[in-house]
Each structure stands twice: as structure tokens, then as C-alpha cells.
């Protein structure tokens, strides 16, 4: 039977694996390799940091969820892919070195969070991108008695060449990989400190390596600036973070912002496992260039989905799911199933939640890609949407067959 190996078990990889199994059935043996047995619903990790969710609420056990749907699971840390010999090399949990051959490969191991690129990260850095970061921030916030807080993202090291074979307007150059979580954290912390009764003792500053939320339309950015004005949040553009110190953060030009608590979305770079792989599989940033079917431009039996693919800009769960679905549909056709392959169309879809104040800002915007849609709306019902979406992801164990319809709510 045709062997399909899927690497990575979050939005992109899970969607690709579940969709392919559903579409191709017994025509493919599908197996997924992920670094850890448990995977976590990342968009609700900010909620962990403010104490409204627990990490356990967001965990999916891949070792049981995938076999329940006829997909094999192996826990392993992928070291490299040899695309020429169709082999993946990985390290098993006991430290032993393993390799696995494939007929088709679907890469969904995401990007790399470059915390090591920020001086002072180990001592002064806080984040929400992984469960352990969110828990560390939760403890710090619980003891925070007031002071200056900075929130921002590190630079995005986007690849430049070779380019993916897709319309150029689909892949704009970005300073930040994704500022949605920064926006969400800034709203959440306002609610958190208000609830704690120390809002007047806290000063929140948000910074961006370029123009903040440059992936949204000028009208949406203006709406966000108005929200920040109302909440007393200061906004600083063009601040490319370089160093964290005890009471300040410093950018690449030496500019400083006072900061007693420094929260950041670390710099995004290509995944080290991809950088160690066959050179012509990746671009100069360590991302995989593909065509609109998510098929590698150099190896036609390799697909890339989600953050690992160079065409997804910004790095967004919504785009990871869309690309995972398309790759599965395209491969199912090659395996003999007649399935309609969806057209890739990038749109920024995300919900920045503020659960402690009972509202969220729902964003839908394609103007960055030349479209006309631009919505950024704060409303109580949007908070409910985020809550339901989290429950939906957990209930389906990451198999979001209806996501295409739900995203247009
Ligand atoms: C705090 C936060 C909040 C966010 N909120 C939203 C949101 O509300 N909406 C939205 O659309 N997007 C959101 N995003 C962006 C979204 O989470 C990412 O775009 C999305 O997770 C990308 O999915 P992916 O599957 O491509 O990659 P990832 O989520 O990075 O998953 C990669 C998987 O591969 C595994 N892996 C990595 N390296 C290896 C290796 N070498 N070997 C084996 N396995 C490996 C990882 O453990 C992981 O399971 C948020 C991001 C953050 C950080």
C-alpha cells in the first residue's frame, strides 16, 4: 500500500493526516510523526497565562486520537529529511536514531521560535507560545504587583528565494510572523489587571518590528489604534527587539522601552530539521516553497502545509488548516480518488479574545493580498465564537472537517 508520512501534529499536520485518511481510505497507509505524544491547542495558551484555562484542557493525546481514525502515530523528533532517498531521520524518545521511508511526505512541523536570538531571554523573557511558557507567565502575573509591561513580537526571518509558485500577491513580505497573539495578550491583560484591581498601577506598551498589524487594512489598524487609545495602551512601531534586560527591552538600533515584565512572541525562523534537510527542498529561510496544491516545487512527492510552507504569510492556524486540507485533497486524487481540490486563497482570520471583559475582536481581512474584505469587530458574541472553536477543536481531537464553513461565521 502507498505509504504517506505526515510530519508534525498540530493544525497543518493533523488536518492533512485526518483529511487524507478520510478521502483516500485504504488506498493509503497514513502515519504521523510528532515530537511529543501530546499536542496542545495553541490559540488558547494565552488563556492559560491569565488563569481562565488549564493546559490539561488543551491537550490531545495523539497516541490514541490518531489510531482511532486509522492513522499510525510515532513519537519522534525529526532531524532531517533526505528527499532524494525518500527517507526521514528522527530520534525516538529513548534516544535511539531511527529512519523511515515514504512514498509521499507531508511536512507540517511548523517554524522555529528563535528565543536563543534574543539576549536575556532565559532570565527575563515571558511568552505564551508553548504550554511551559504560558504556565511560567501565569505564575509571574499572579505575583505582579504593578509596573511596566511590554508585549511584542520578534522579527520574522522569512525566506526570499526560491519563491513558491503562486501569485506574488499571496506572499507579501512581513516583518512579524503573526501579531494576532500580541493583540490578544494586550487586550487580555487589560481585563486581567482590571479584575485584579490594579489596572491603575500597570502601564502596557505594545511594540512591533514593523508597522503593527500591517497585514490588516488601514481602516482596521485605525480601529485597533482607537481601541488602544481607549484602553490606555501605548503603541510603538519599528522596534526590532534585540535584548531583554531586567527593567527594559532594547531594539537593534539601541532604542529602549521601560519594561518590568517582557512578554514576546519570539523571532520566527525556519525549522532546524528543515534547514538540515536536502538543500533544494527549502528556501533560504528554511521554509518549503510549493505550488498552490502545496506540492514542493522540486520534489513532487513532497507536500508542505502550515507554518513550514513558505507561502503561508502570516503564520496563521487558519492558513495551516486550509493548506493541510488542500494537500490532502490533491494527494487523494493522485491516489485514485476523484476529489475536488480547493483553491488556496489567503485571508487573515482570527479572533483576539478578552474573556475577563467578556468580548473579543474578530478579524477577517484579505486586503493585504489585494482583496476587499476588512472586518475588525469587538463584540461579546466573538468571545463565544472563540470559546466554541476551542471546544470544537478539542472535541474533534484536531480533526476540523467543518472548519471551512465555521471560519466564515
Ligand atoms: C500564542 C499563539 C496564539 C495563536 N492564536 C492563533 C489564532 O487565534 N488563530 C490562528 O489562526 N492562528 C493563531 N496562531 C498561529 C497558529 O498557532 C500557527 O500558525 C499554527 O499553529 C501553525 O500550525 P502548524 O501545524 O503549521 O505548525 P505548529 O503549530 O508549529 O505545529 C508543528 C507541530 O510539529 C511538531 N514539531 C516541530 N518540530 C518537530 C520535529 N523536528 N520533529 C517532530 N515534530 C516536530 C510540533 O511539536 C508541533 O506539534 C497563534 C500562535 C501563537 C503562538
Automatic annotation (TrEMBL):
PANTHER family given in the database record: FAD-DEPENDENT PYRIDINE NUCLEOTIDE-DISULPHIDE OXIDOREDUCTASE, PTHR43755
Protein name: NADH dehydrogenase, FAD-containing subunit
Superkingdom classification of source: Archaea
Signal peptide stretch: none
Organism of origin: Metallosphaera yellowstonensis MK1
Pfam families linked to this entry: Pyr_redox_2
Domain FAD/NAD(P)-binding: 3-130, 211-324
Gene Ontology molecular-function annotations: oxidoreductase activity
